[in-house]
Every structure is written in C-alpha cells, then in structure tokens.
Amino acid sequence: MSQMIRVTLPDGSAREVVRGTTPAQIAADIGPGLAKAALAAKIDGELRDIMRPLEEDTNLALVTSRDEADALELVRHDYAHVLAEAVQNLFPGTQITFGPSTGDGFYYDFAPTAGHGAFRDDELPLIEEEMRKIIAADLPLTREVWERDKLIAKWAAEGETFKAEWAAELPQGEELTVYRSGDGWMDMCRGPHLASTGKLDPAAFKLTRVSGAYWRGDQKNAQLSRIYGTGWLNKKQLAEHLVRLEEAAKRDHRKIGREMDLFHLQEEAHGSIFWHPKGYRIYRELEAFMRRAIDGGGYVEVKTPQVMDARQWEQSGHWGKYRENMFVIPDEIPNTEDDGPIISDDAEWMALKPMNCPAHVLIFRQGIKSYRDLPLRMAEMGCCHRNEPHGALHGILRVRQFTQDDGHIFCREDQIVEEVRTFCALLDRVYRDLGFEKYAVKLALRPEKRFGTEEMWDKAEAELREAVARAGMANDDYGWEELPGEGAFYAPKLEFHLTDAIGRTWQCGTIQSDRVMPERLDASYVAEDGERHRPVMLHRAILGTYERFIGILIEHFAGRFPTWLAPVQAVVATIVSDADDYAKDAAEQLAAAGIRVETDLRNEKINYKVREHSLQKVPYLLVVGKREAEEGSVAIRTLGQDGQRIMPLAEAIAMLKGEATPPDLRG
Fold first, then answer.
1. Half-sphere exposure (Cβ direction) of 380: Cα atoms closer than 13 Å
2. How far is CA 108 from the centre of its chain?
3. Which residue is catalytic, options 76, 360, 408, 540?
C-alpha cells in the first residue's frame, strides 16, 4: 500500500501527503491564519475531526467560523460534552445519557444521584462556572475506538448503566467511538468534535433551564434531569440570541393564549386543545380562508374515518414504519365483569389515523378512473392523532390531536411537474395573504430506510427540482437548498420554511411525490392505451396543521392579529352612561356590516377601558360619549397607535368593513 495519498481542495488544487496526515497539518501547511481558524474538516462532504488522520485519497474542505451552520453544530455539540463533564465534576455519581445539539444550542440528560435529586435552575450558574474552567484548561478532545465488550464493561464498572445499556444495543459491527477530554473524562459519541475545549468561546454560551425527561423518551423508563443551554460562536451572537429569546418570551403563544382567552390545555386530555370561543373564531376564519383557497385551486373536499383496521395500515406501510406513533384500539366490546380483564388477548386491532393518505387512496379506488379524470385534487380538513411522548408536547405547537389542511393530488406522470408548480404558486399566495413575505424552499432527498427503487427516487427528485425551477423558486431569494437523507420513507418532499417577525423559521408546507403508496394500495386508472396504470400521488399541505399554524400566527403577530383574523375586531366603549343606547345602536350597525363587535358599557374610566382592550389586542376601540351620540360620530383608537380620529359612524363602519375583509376577498 502506497504511503502517499492525494488530497483535493475546494479550489481544485491537489497535494500529495503522507497517509495519516491530519487536516490540521494540511491547514498549517497552507498558512498560520488558516491553521488558527480551522475548526474541523469535511471529508468527501462528511464533517470530521480536524485531528483525525486521512487514510485514503479524498476531497478536503476545511471548516471555519465562516461556515456558520457546520461551525455552530460543532460548538454546540462540544458545549454539551463540556456541560456533562462539568456536572460530573461537581456532582459525583451523576450518570450521563445523551447530549445532542439543537437548533439554537444544546441539552444533556442526566440521572442525578438519589441523594441530590433533580437538578434545579438555581444550580445553573455554578455549572456554568465549572464549564468555563474546563474551556480555559484547553483540554484536547481525542477520538478513541473501543471494543464493544470492553466499553460495556467500563461503563458498567463506573456505574454508568444507561451508557452500558446503549452500547450493548448498538448494531453489531458498528464502530464504537468515545471522545476523551484531556486524559480523563470521556463520553460515547460518533463525533465530530473540535480539537480542544479551548476552541470554544467561554462567553458565548448560557445555560437556560432545567426540565424533566425520560430515558429514551419513554415515560415508562427512568426519569432524568435535562439541562438546556444555548451556544454560539461568539459573545455578540449570544447577546443577539438572548434579545430574541426575550422577545420570544413576550410572544409565547401559551402566555398570549391565556391573556386573550383563546384556548387551554390540561392533563385530562394530554396533547389535545380546548378551544375557547375567541380562539375557535380564529380557527374558523383560517379554515374558511383555506377552503376558499382549495376551492379556487380545483380541489374536491372529502371526509374520511378516524379509525381504520390495522390491516389497512400494514398494507400502506405505516404499521411497520410508524406504529410507535399510532394509537391502537382493540376491535371488541370491553368486558364488563369486575373480575375479568377489560380487553382479551384475542381482539383484532384498529388504529386512530395518524395521517389521511391511505383513506384518500381508498376513495380514489371507488369506481373506475380514466386518464381524463386526472389530475384529481382531493382535500380534507382531516383530524389525526399521533402518540407523541408527553415530554415532547409543547403548547399548541406540538400536540397529539390535530387537523391537517391535507390534500392529495392523483395525477399522470406527465402532469407531475405542472401540478407541483401550481401548488407552489398557491402556497405563495396563501403565505403572503397571511403576512409571511419570507420563506425558504428545501428539497428533502431519499432517506437511508425507504420503499421503492433507485430509479423511482431519481425520477421523483428530478421532477420536484424542475417544478421549483419553473415556479421561479430555485434561487437564493427563496433559500433554495437540498437536504440529503431527510425525505419520507415513501417519497422525496419539498419543504417550505416560514420566517416569522423575529427571524425564527418554521417548517410548515410540504409536497411529496409518491409512487409507492399507489402501488401498495393498488390504485390505478385506465390510460389512453386502454391499459391500467398507477397514478402518482402528491401529498401536500400548506399550513401543516391548524393548531400549530395558529400558534405560529399568535407568536408572529404577538397576538395583534390583522383585523380580518382578530376574534373581536372592534369594541364600542362609552365614556358616560348617557351614551349607552347610542353605543348599542352603533354595535348593531357594525354587526350588521359583518364586523365582530362587542360593547363596553361598564361604569369605568375610559383610560381603564382603553388599557384593558389593548391588552386583549382588539384592533379598534370606538369611544362614544354624549357629544358623539348627538353628532352620530365615534372616536376611533387603533391598536398600537397614539391618539384618536373622530369620524361619522357610517364612515367608520365602511373603514372597518374594509379592514375586516379577508385579503383574498378584497378584489
């Protein structure tokens, strides 16, 4: 075997180096500035440690802080490891489990000692101080490969039962690696990591909170303490993030939902929402808006069963791939005898639907379909259930019961690109009407575990690329990007990521090109040649789910909905009781014009009323007193603006009617 290997750099230049040379050495050969700046390496596109030796010919790209996405992933992973080391330094006997990076930081799950109990928020400053000591020590982070039995024995001997359990369950033949901090502390990890702890900025992280978690996300397992942190490349990024967090806290949909009396959640229905009248008004307005959109897009709306036989889910492929997230139901009458089991072992199984697609195929299969019937665009406001772990639930953003703005387009091969392009145009109109001017389009490519042939996936991915190009979205203005390995098990998909008012992104819309499910569920149409052919099934959604999207809207607008979506659009408030009758009459005229209006006739000072209705985020307050009653006018106060305008009631009604008209109906 040759002792020399060929390393090709991004600019196309190549150099011969001795086998075993590290990317760090190559960076040093190029120049001292790069040697200092380089954090990691990309080897044939895969992120690797900068100190990991090169063993064969390769394409090498050196990662610096300018490669922000990769750099942030690295430092956040390292902060998680430093957190774990700090906790074990301070609290001996604490067991470590997992510690991944997240979208804005990191967390680590710990099993505290019985004597200590769950970690507390007031312990975070002490842990931060210990983390900074570890960073200041500039300990090398070195990768080691261990034999399975020896690693399991080491974990067991040190009382790390969770790590021992995980190591024992990793697939046979998989290389088990650990990363050691200095000469002592270590954690089992695939990596990559920075060269040393000193590469982290000690002023660029902050531990944020402590919560409960379960080992491997299962509430039947041991309860753990999860410590969250946020980590960045430098102090400035951290400061900017903390400002965003402060603003996000003000916009938290759970807080605003309570203040505006929109909804509530409670343990008696984990992951399901109790919509209050005002919250459900927003839901209904959004639903009506979406119905107009799908009607205009040529969809037919259907309604399908909540519960279907498990055999149907087996045939569709969901039973094998998705069963852990499904609620299953025995198909039998429960035993009513006190001394017997409620359910026998002989029951057939059914499941609450986690998605609508198999049921839509069953509708498509009713009757013979011709090529002339395609495309058939089928939509459903479909209520679904997914068995999310309790610890993963989050307000109305992540729930167990939800309603999708779901749709499936059954089409011919020659119609796919145009149908996807048309969907992109529809989605664009909807997002802009809802106040989202900026969103990114991403193509999620084939995952490791998938149905279908390589040829099928090649074709499906190419069609989605072409459709995005035809829609004019395959460019930087739309954040166009391809995501290897992130497609569904049956199809590649386009994802649409919204950017909200404070710069956060939310993945909402999606469209997937699927040739697998029509085959598995035997969907067909009669083609022009008289033979039966399989349709292609495009799974698509714009909002994603109503529940989550309303949560996003609450936070995007900070509760100050555009007038057409606001649950109460106007309040007529009196200054004196002499104006009560006029206020009631004004409210009746506003209601007759289609405006959602309330009156406030309480014996309270007007400033108190103004403040209260401002907190309720009512877009318009119409103040009336004796003079307004005599003149037939109103003093209008607009939410978020100082001062007021005096205008005739008829003029005010016309203005509010225009504001209250949904954007798609404004001509």
1. 22
2. 20
3. 408
